[in-house]
Amino acid sequence: MSNASAGPGDRLVRIGVLLFALGTVATLATVTPMLIGAHALPTAVYLLSALMPLGFAVAAAGLLRSIRSRRRPVPRTL
């Protein structure tokens, strides 16, 4: 898909998916040491896990923006 055909919320959805993926990888990285009995990772990795819900929220906002832009106007009656 080219940028010329991108809708109003498409960029937010893409950014949200990227943030969600990074948060998922960070979450898996923080859980793995607990499961195998290794030392815990630094606090920064735990903070990166917060990107998962943030990415979900950004993608949801992009979807809502896209939906709002495609709504038909309501005809005004007198």
Please give a handful of descriptors for the protein shown.
3 helices, 78 residues, mainly alpha
List the helices and strands and how they pair.
Elements: H1 10-36, H2 43-48, H3 51-70
Alpha-carbon Rg, integer? 19 Å
Oligomer status: single chain
Number of DSSP helices? 3
Low-confidence runs? none
The mean pLDDT is 88
Distance between the termini: 42 Å
Helical coverage, percent range: 55-70%
Largest sheet: none
Class computed from helices, strands and strand pairing: mainly alpha
**How many beta-strand segments?**
0
What series of H and E elements makes up the topology? HHH
Which strand-content bin applies to the residues?
Answer: under 5%
Shape: rod-shaped
Notes on the protein architecture:
This protein has 78 residues and is an all-alpha fold. Helix content is 68%, strand content 0%. It is built from three helices and no strands. Helix 1 (10-36) runs antiparallel to helix 3. The model has no long low-confidence stretch (mean pLDDT 88).
Quick description:
The protein is mainly alpha-helical. The chain has helices spanning 10-36, 43-48, 51-70.
